[in-house]
Amino acid sequence: MNLQGKMLVVVLFAGTVLGRAQQAQIWRTDNTKQPEGKPAISLTLSVNPQQVKLGESTQLEVSLKNLSVGEIFVYKDTGKSDNSSYDVFVVDDKGVEASTTPYYRHLHGTRLPGDPHVYYGTGSRSADPVEPGGILNSQIKLERLRLLDHAGTYKIWVERADGISKSRVKSNTVTVTVTP
Length: 180
Known about the structure:
mainly beta
């Protein structure tokens, strides 16, 4: 392998390792300080449809708003049909957390013995700029991450790391009703 080939392998390996570590990062390139205790982003969650039959699909939409005084960059996976940069929480009407799928566990490094090796997407990553007051929308196919495996009402919210304020930001809570 020539020197250029070796350099390419090192760059690709480093990009993959760094990409995984920074998957949910949000950062700013200027030196503007975020006011102490104030998150740089807000998250608004919506769901469509709000009522489904057991086994039907539910799609979440997350709107990330830049609350900071400067442009921010939102790091995300681009080759996947859902945005894995969010932690998705789902609890039923008894407060029991919905089971995760093998894909969710793969994304979050919590694979269980016997989980199939699953991988969706190209592994591409991007950093989307969001101006102050701007909004970045992302879609998540809920059934790829969590199992709504019985009839009832489920509460759903998402969280994401905010690298600027060094905090976690939680969205509003939405409900989905699953009928038999």
